[in-house]
Structures are given as structure tokens and as C-alpha cells.
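new request in #modeling-help
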Amino acid sequence: MVKIVVESLYFRYPEASDYALRNISFRIVEGESVAILGENGAGKTTLAKNLNGLLKPTEGSVKIDGVDTRNLSVAKIARKIGFVNHNPEHQFFAEKVEDEVRFGLRNFGFSEEAADKTIREVLNVFGLEEYRGKNPFQLSGGEKKRLAIASIMAWRPEALIVDEPTIGMDYAQKLNIRRVLRSIVSEGRCVIVITHDVDFAASICERAIILSRGEVIGDGRLRDLLSDDTLVEKASLRKPFLIELEKETGLTGLEEDFDAISSTLVEVFQKCRS
Amino acid sequence: MSFLRAFKYRRKDTAVHRLDPRSKFLLSTILMAVSIVFTDIRVLLALVFGQIILLSLAESLREWLSSLRGLLFFFAVIFATQLLFGGTLYTGFILSLRLLALSSSMSWFFLSSTPEDIGRAMSVAGLPIELTFSFTMAIRFIPVIYDEFQSIYDTQRSRGLELEKGGFRNRIRNLMPVLIPLLVGTIRRTYEIADAMEVRAFGASPKRTTFKPLRLKSGDYLVCAASAILVALAAYLKLLGIE
């Protein structure tokens, strides 16, 4: 299984005078679910693009299973680490949903028979079987996002990076995306979620890496980090709903029974009262 | 695409940036015309040198230099076509120098003039607002479309697409997964912008007011005089038989 090691990473865009990322070090091992959090412009997407080789470090290194990303092509890294762009329409070009999934499989040399079988399976898992022959641009926002993830998960990468998975999603769509990501985590695959949505992150990820102005200001258990008032304020975040509720009411253990995405306040209070 | 950097406006407070776009446009057009009508190496070198001074005054020399790498491809094409069709290395050099003089004459103008300024200058010249507005929007959206292209390209590379692989035909075919989403996105954006303009009453009144009216200042008259001298000098050189 994949292991990502980031050591003293500095990154600067070609025409920029300042670094977008400074002195970043961490490691992500198999089966981890990690949220990369931080304010706008903190460097979250830049960091993600360094993890999958789209950007190469200016200084320091990013190693995938011990190999420096400078020595690997993006395609080679993509086979192990999938990346889902925040805008799913940036990847759609095929006429049919099934061909959109087929694209990556062809690039990675799957035979047509193996690709057909995989497409059937993956569309089924992601609840997109009925849209198989539909134009991807005609899907709803949530379906597009699911298709984007499905077309990456088709070749079974060992880790998945998802950039802003909940942007523009309604409640039901958010639940669907969460179900999909949770199922990937439960398979023992590594999931890295880049988001502002702390409730969503808390409902999927155990660990958080918090960025501010290109530097890591927190790395640890998501719950612990997002309970820290100073850290939360510094990263322009807010506490997840359940953590805030526990703090305000003095109650404990709410997180074990509920999650901030699907639970309502009424449900939580009813449980507390009983 | 790196040569496009030489045509992207950079906000700076220099004497060149403060000039009226009409006077800059006049000088830029004359420099372009002179670059086209002369093939004499001394004239072309003088044009490039003069424009390097203009670019330095506009504090944009770095942007211009970084765009030269992109122009290398076009220089290579010029040399190749010259050698293939009976030209010499010297004619290839002269044509490349002419291209450099031509692109520089547009470069300092676009680097120091906002798309809005250019649009205003076109309006003042009597062109219809629909045309000037479309022109301004097209220029303003070049960096946006470039960013989108980069994002789509990155996304498809993350799906195993390797544009550099295979022969020429294969590479063109490999571009489709990048160009189709870009085209769809651009058409969608066009409709969205049209709607956004309509809801803000674009075109409702035939008489439009200007928030920042253009006024020629002493520096602009100086540039206009320099342009006239340049035309006279070019005519004189032609009379002397310099090609």
C-alpha cells in the first residue's frame, strides 16, 4: 500500500516572488483518512498537486513509496494516487458516462473486456448504472462529482485526493459523496480531502493537516485540532457542529452517536434529554 | 504559450503606464508598420533597441524577456521554412529580427495598457460599444482561459493522459480531452456573461457615460511628436534607398 513522505517541502510558482508552501513535512500511510484544511489561498490545492506530481517541489522532497516525485511521471503517480479536481466538468469530454470512465482505464492499458467489467462494477458501486449512456454534462452536480470520483476509482488507486468535494452540493448530494468516500476508506485505501467544510471533514477523516499562509500550523487528530480555539481562528475555520455543541453544553460523546452531516439538532437534543 | 506573457497587462505606476492609450497605440502602430516595411538589419536592430528602452521605462523588461523563450519556436519555424524554400540563414535571421521587432511593438503596448483603457480608446475612435466591449472582454479573459486550460490539462494528466507520447497525429488526438471541456466551459461562460450583462441593462441606453474620460497630457503630445518624427525618418530612409 502507498506511503507518502513529504520532507521540508518548499514550493514557489514560476513567476511568484514568494513561496506558496514553506517547510512542510509529514507522512501519510496506508488506510489513513486525512483532511487538509485552511483558509482560501493557504496552499491546500498546491500541496495536493505536489502530492500527485502535477507540481514538483522547489526545495525538499515528496516521496511516493520511497521514490522522489521528480523521478516519476504524473501518469505513474496517478496509477497509485488518484486526484479529483474541484470542478468535475474540467475532466468531462466523452459523449457517454461509460466512456468517461473508460478513458482512464485505456490510458492505463486495461483490455476492453477488463474495462467493460470494471465500468459495470464501478458505475454500480457509485449509483450511476442508470446513467451509463447519458451525456456527463447532463448529470446533476452531485452525480457529476460522483462520476468524477468513479472515473478515478475505476483503476483502483491506492490513495485518492479529492479537492473541495462538497462545493455547490445540496444536503442529499453531500451525503452521497460522503457515503462514497467512507466506502473507499473502509476498503483500507487512503483518502485525502481538501475542504473548507469542517463538518464534512469531521465525518470522514481521522486526521487533519491545517495550513495557513503556506505553512502547516497543525497536524494531528482532527477532533483535537478543531477543538483548539486559537488554531481554528488562525486558519479562518470554525469548529464542527458537534464539537461546538459539546463545548457549549458540557456533554461528551456526541460524536460517537451522531455525525455533523446527517444528524439534526432535534435528534441530538432528543437523545440528550433521554 | 509562454510568449503570451508579453501581452498580459501588469499593473505598475510608470510614465509609460500613465500615458493615454491612444498615444501609445499610435506609436505602437507606427513601430509595427516600420518593422514591416524595412528589412535593413540596422533599422530592425534600432527598432528592437528602442523598444527595449520603452520596456525598461515600463519596468516590463523581465516579462518581455521571459516571453522570448516562447518565441524561439516561431524563430525555428522561420529558419526551417527559409532553408527549405531557398532562403539563407541571413534571411532567416532578418525575418526573425522583424518578428521580434513586431511582437515587441505590441508587447510594450499591451503590457502597459489595461483592456478597459484599450476599449475606451476604441470607443473614443467611434467604434460601436458592442465591438469595443467584445474586444475588451476577449483580452481580459485570455488569462482566465489559460488558467482553465492548465487546470483541465492537469486533471487529464491525473487520469493518465500523456500528451507528449506518440506521433504528431496521436498528440493532436490526445488534445481532445483537454480542448472539449475547455470549449464547453468557454461557451457556457459566454452565455453566463451575456445574461449577467443583460440583467445589468447592457445596451438599454444608446447614450453611455464614461466613468474615467480619456485626456491627452503633455507626455502624450510628446509621444505623438515622436511618432511623427519616426514616420518622417522612415520616409527619409526609404528615399535614401534603405530597404
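bot summary: Chain A touches chain B through 26 residues (CB under 8 Å).
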